[in-house]
Amino acid sequence: MEDLDEIVREFLVESHENLDQLDSDLVALEGSPESRELLSSVFRTIHTIKGTSGFLAFGKLEKLTHAGENLLVELRDGRRSMDLPTTDVLLEMVDGVRSILQAIESTSTEGDVDVAPTVERIRVVLEQRDQVEETPVPDPTPAPEAPADPTPVAEVAPPVAEPVAAPAPEPAAEPAAKAKAPRKIRAVKRPAAAKAPAAPSVEATVEPTPEPTPTPEPAPVAETPAAKPTPAKATPAKAAGNESAGEPSRSAADASIRVDVDLLDALMRQVGELVLARNAITRLADDSAGSDLVRASQRLSLIASELQEGVMKTRMQPIEHVWSKVPRMVRDLAAACDRQVRLEMVGGDTELDRSLLEAIKDPLTHLIRNAIDHGIESAVDRTAAGKTAQGLLSLRAYHAGGQVVVEVTDDGKGIDHERVATKAVEKGLRTPQQVAAMAPAELLQLLFLPGFSTAEAVTNVSGRGVGMDVVRTKIEGIGGTVDVDSSVGKGTTWRLRIPLTLAIMPALTIVCDEQLYAIPQVSLVELVALDAQTNESSIEYIRSAPVYRLRGDLLPLVDLREVFGSGPREEGVRTVIAVLQADTQRFGLIVDRVLNTEEIVVKPLSARLKSIGLYAGATLLGDGRVSLILDVQAIARRSMAGEIGEAERGSRASATVEAVETVQVLVAGVGDGRRVAIPLSAVTRLEKIPATAIEHAGGREVVQYRGSITPVVRLGSSYGMAVAEDDELTVVVYTRGARSVAIVVEEIVDIVDDDAAKHYDLGDHGLMGSTVLKDRVTELLDIQSAVVAVDPYFFTDVEVPSQHGPLDPDDINSPAAGRGALVGV
Fold first, then answer.
1. 614 near 631, Cβ under 8 Å?
2. Within a domain: 164
């Protein structure tokens, strides 16, 4: 009896795997009805389930799959073509099979699942055979060879299976009784061509025959290729599982085994403990002067790292395991929402920890439903908008920055920011004043609030306001992030960033108020240290919120002491800022000091600490001390309404004023103490050239610059000033299109911001006015006039923009422009 129970378990596991593939194959077959590879794969799967269910005395399951097999026989023999009603009823059969398998798994019986309605609908479809296509049974011919790189479009490019001989007809009762129970660990991973049968009772070797042999009861017929000098990929006999004694290579099935997930989890826990012990020994070795201990520690560290990597690989699975159900889901949703949708899936071989794959199933489902129902328009609306009638839904997965990024993109109508703001106010989630002060990116974050929905009416697909909230909650629950980009009329992209594993991760250990904390390395951008002397001048305040100007950008600051409500920070000490990334939000976390970076093992928190909402877990450090792991996302959200929110709004307001009223200029001396300001957007490069490089052509000074003859403009001479001759000249290179000019100045003073509101109309020919920069009167250079004075035809074929407007990068000859291009000085 125990052996029979093991066979049933094997049957359930393999049948569930087959059904996932069956959904994809049927949807793909609907788009490519001529594909015999797909049809053969579907036929083999159904026949295998039918044969094994008969052996195990599951009558309902056998009856349902037998009816489906009858329909597949007509498709295989060419007596009917794959159409919408056929696909619908076959998918209904698959759902029925899945329901029965779930009942068997739960109760060891087939339960009260009623298969009669589905069997009747299959019979009706069989009787409604298309009379137009009365075609004879085609001769079995080999399927075309699968392309080397199939297009990742689920509905257009289905997975291709190699030509394989079908299993034998249903075995008789006597062979079934003699079937030997399989081992507990056996082959489970099938090749793309076909999976091994679930039980030995249906395993048989089929000799290829020239023509199919009809039987009273529909049964699979072996497909044999016509005689060719070279067979395609694999012969039918080999594909059917004909194992000869002299076979030198293992099959794909023999190369893999099924292992209990609980065993893998236990191994991962033990590896975690090994990592902790490794860290402790490494810490002791670092403090020891003994070279033998250091070498032994290094060897242990290497072995532990390799073991950790190996065990983690056993838990990794390609994301296509989750995507396998997407084609069926998209087909059903498109039909329910009256949409035409083309599905593309790229990066299905990207691997994730198995537990994380399970965690992202529901978020992906919500995003796909949202894209089809809210994003992609109906065919009529798309045509009116100048788009193709068929919308595009794209799934893409790839590695980036130590994480797996999953993108769900549609080319639909996009998200209307104003509509989001209006709905947020209508539902009482935000006030009109709050939404008016929000940036577009902040408005999109409102989509993740509980109860928020832009749907006009509640349907069975969406509109209840729980989808995006569930997405964020579940993704952040596994240490990931979710963000959205949208353009009205063009589409929306939802982006999930997921850690590779939750068990072991690198982290930065820090100290705050004498307590140890760990920050996940994946959230850390950089570290900034400010000495005591520059603390007060470096940290600014906008609307009472502290900010730090990091390379010209305002970085909102959050003091970890204030987050935890601990004592005030000491004055006159160095300030350490950890620059962190949370979703699209970047902020600086002020800590007392930084210790080091090491791999940590994530331990779950007790229920008391979970309620605080600021910790992602706990860990044991190498010196034996316990450290809490900070939840960067939670800290950012808690501070958003305080320091970060105020600082960001003040930063945007300040940046807007600066953008309107100021422009960066290059200040240069031109002789006799006079200075000119050149718009930085007009500066391509700064160069030093020898005076001997100046030549004459057509009565004008020129210089050979990057393979072309470049006119020389001496600003000092243009303004009638005496300029000392130096052995080396400072040149400002100005480029438009394919032409350049070299403007000679006496010296480069600085790059400053020019307040456009403080210009004075005091100038001369070649000047646009005057202003005060760095406490000196500075003249604003009119580059067009200065260049035309030496080369009247310089701008003949090139339209010149305003001197205070930015240059179009496409029109600049140099690959670098603006401030970052100021090199060579």
1. yes
2. no
The structure tokens 């699968």 sit at: 146
- Laid out side by side, the sheet with 626-630 consists of 593-601, 504-512, 515-520, 626-630, 615-620
Domain-ending residue, one of 464, 499, 534: 499
Q: How many CB atoms lie within 10 A of CB 93?
A: 25
- Alpha carbons 646 and 640: distance in angstroms, whole number: 8
Count of structural domains within the chain: 5
Residues 6+ apart with CB under 8 A from 575: 529, 530, 535, 539, 590
Q: What local confidence, expressed as pLDDT, does residue 494 receive?
A: 92
Q: Could you give the CA distance from residue 539 to residue 577 in angstroms, rounded to a whole number?
A: 11
Q: Rounded to whole angstroms, how far apart are CA atoms 59 and 85?
A: 26
517 bridge partner residues: 510, 628
Q: Are 483 and 492 in contact (CB under 8 A)?
A: no
- For residues 440 and 542, membership in a common domain is answered with no
Helix then strand then coil, % of the chain, to nearest 5: 40, 25, 40
In tens, the pLDDT along 770-792 reads 788 877 888 888 887 788 777 77
| Phi/psi at 637 (5° precision) | -65, -40
- From edge to edge, which strands make up the β-sheet containing 700-705? 685-690, 728-736, 739-745, 708-714, 700-705, 695-697
Q: Is residue 254 part of a domain?
A: no
Tell me, yes or no, whether 490 lies in a domain: yes
618 shares a domain with 586: yes
pTM of the predicted protein model? 0.54
Are the beta carbons of 182 and 162 closer than 8 angstroms? no
How far is residue 822's CA from residue 749's CA, in Å, rounded to a whole number?
13
Choosing from 499, 515, 541, the residue where a domain stops is 499
CA–CA distance, 641 with 638 (Å, rounded to integer): 7
> Token pair for residue 805?
């407007």
Distance (Å, whole) CA 127 – CA 86:
12
Q: How far is 259 from 261, CA to CA, in rounded Å?
A: 6
pLDDT digits (tens, 9 = 90+) for 483-515: 888 888 899 999 998 887 777 888 899 999 888
How far is Cα 51 from Cα 418, in angstroms, rounded to an integer? Answer: 59
Based on the domain organization, do 323 and 300 belong to the same domain? no
In a domain, 625, yes or no: yes
pLDDT band at 817 (very low <50, low <70, confident <90, very high): very low
Q: Angle, nearest 10°, between helix axes 354-370 and 467-477?
A: 160
Name the nearest CA neighbour of 210 among 180, 189, 240, 236.
Answer: 236
pLDDT digits (tens, 9 = 90+) for 191-238: 343 333 333 333 333 333 334 434 444 444 333 333 333 333 333 333
Q: Which residues contact 373 (CB under 8 A, 6 or more apart)?
A: 333, 337, 455, 459, 461, 462
Q: Are residues 715 and 672 in the same domain?
A: yes
Show the domain range for 677: 661-821
- β-pair partners for 379: none
The whole-angstrom separation of Cα 361 and Cα 364 is: 5
SS3 729: strand
Distance in angstroms (rounded) separating the CA atoms of residues 41 and 193: 7
Q: Do residues 787 and 669 both lie within one domain?
A: yes
DSSP-assigned letters across all residues of 749-804: EEEEEEEGGG-B----TTEEEEEEETTEEEEEE-HHHHHHTT-TTTTSSS----TT
65 and 109 fall within a common domain: yes
> Vertex 153, ends 148 and 159: CA angle to 5°?
50
- For tokens 């090491």, name the residue: 598
Summarize pLDDT for 413-462 with one digit per residue, the tens: 998 888 888 888 888 888 888 888 888 888 888 888 877 776 555 455 55
Confidence band, pLDDT 50/70/90 cuts, at residue 597: confident
Sign of the C-alpha dihedral computed for residues 779, 781, 782 and 788 taken in this order: positive
